[in-house]
Amino acid sequence: MRYREISEARRGGRDLNPKLNPISVLKKYVNSGYYMSYTSIDKLGINPRSGYNTPIGIYSYPIEDRVVGGIIAADDLSRVPYMGEAPYIWIFKPKSVDRGLIIRDYTGEDYDSDVDLLYKYFRNSDERISSAFDAIRESAQRDARINSAVGYLWNFTRILGRILAGDETISRYTVEILPMGAYVKHGNEIALVIDVYNDSDEYEIEYIDGETATVKFDSVTAIPKLDSDKYEKLFDQLYSIKNTDAARVNISNPNAKYELSPWMIYSFNSVYGIIKIVNVENDERRFITLDRLLNTNPRFHRS
Asked: pTM (2 decimals)?
């Protein structure tokens, strides 16, 4: 076991001899209301520049038989779930535990109460977060690594902190994230989602001409899926005529003779109702929606 210094955190400095055996020091505080915190520097406190993706605070273990029994028995201070290899251990006794989060005692009622306090705070200080509060909370609970009240709070406050620091965007929680293969409206164009970048809240999309672009989640409008059964006969009809003169279609004037139109149905996606058309005169290609096809070509019927 490499050398580990144990110190008692007191105003005015240490009163423990660093040459003492660390385990023997630890034994003196078992079941006496003390806590121990492992640190990487010779100081106990809150590090606002912590590199860990966790809520900021002083993380500590209660010095109780159930926690330190294994440490003492194995004569090994690293036998803890987190920061076990840190070079310093600080022993302290809080004046009050009321402002601490005691994991073993935290209940669902505590969580509900803390959520209410957080909402009241953000309602008065940050309209962005307050308007998306429920969506953020639901996501935090759904994705929490530990399925418990304290696990929910830990993840919820972690996400809120990242949003406040600018490390995470709110749109991730307010905008439905679409899968690859979905179709979206970006500006005046329809495009296919070919990749999803959750870390930056972006899609990579592909336009009809094969050009691609990276766009933010909230810059596109999702094209909803169709009720495929409702359009089964129509898609059978389109499949039978695509790439033939019978597949000539109007794209703007429903009263024009479709036989004279240069536009022809090339292919289609029956899940999203996206029709790919090609201009037989200049090979220009476009995506149009099924609604647009039906509105400008009365010979086709919805069912």
From this structure: 0.55
